[in-house]
Amino acid sequence: MSCKSAFGYLISNDEVKYATCQWDGYPEHMIPELKKYWNTSSEAMELINNKEMEELNEGVAIIYNDVDDDHLEKYIITLEEFKNLEDVEYFYLFEDDKWLVLDKHTSTEFEDIDNVILESNEFIEVYNKIITENRK
């Protein structure tokens, strides 16, 4: 599914170094991916150093557009600019050794990815509840 996302690393109080990804940016795909493969400070920075990715899957970043060193400064912006990147639906920010997420459709603030209920998890919870109730 085409769903652009952006990944940021807070490098100061108001500066973010970031990268973008063209495909599968929705939380159901990205949150498990970030938790499993990109969950430390060095792994998060490695991910963000990819700049422009086409896809991120199973710990592999497929590069969309290779950026030369002369244009690297455009990938450091303010936090407010990061939250307003054009055509991005989901934002992931690595801050204080954890990932945060911002869903542009439902919120204006970042939240800890561990507090996000994914639709797939919600389905499993409802399904398990129904099964448990039917066994009584």
Structure description:
- There is one protein chain.
- The chain is of the alpha+beta class.
- Helix content is 30%, strand content 35%.
- It has one domain (2-135).
- The radius of gyration is 16 Å and the shape is globular.
Shape: globular
Strand proportion? 25-35%
The share of residues in helices is: 25-40%
Q: C-alpha Rg, in Å?
A: 16 Å
Number of helices: 4
Write down the overall mean pLDDT: 83
| Overall number of structural domains | 1
Pick out the low-confidence regions.
Answer: none
Summing up helix and strand content along with how strands pair, one would put the structural category as alpha+beta
Order of helices and strands: EEHHEEEHEEEH
**In total, how many beta strands?**
8
Distance between the termini: 40 Å
Biggest sheet descriptor: 8 strands, mixed
Keywords, separated by commas or semicolons:
136 residues, alpha+beta, eight-stranded mixed β-sheet, 30% helix
Briefly summarize what is shown.
This protein is α+β, with helices and mostly antiparallel strands and 136 residues long.
Give the arrangement of secondary structure elements:
Blueprint: E1 2-10, E2 15-23, H1 27-37, H2 41-48, E3 52-57, E4 60-65, E5 76-78, H3 79-83, E6 90-95, E7 98-103, E8 111-112, H4 119-135
Parallel strand pairs: 1-6, 2-3
Antiparallel strand pairs: 1-2, 2-5, 3-4, 6-7, 7-8
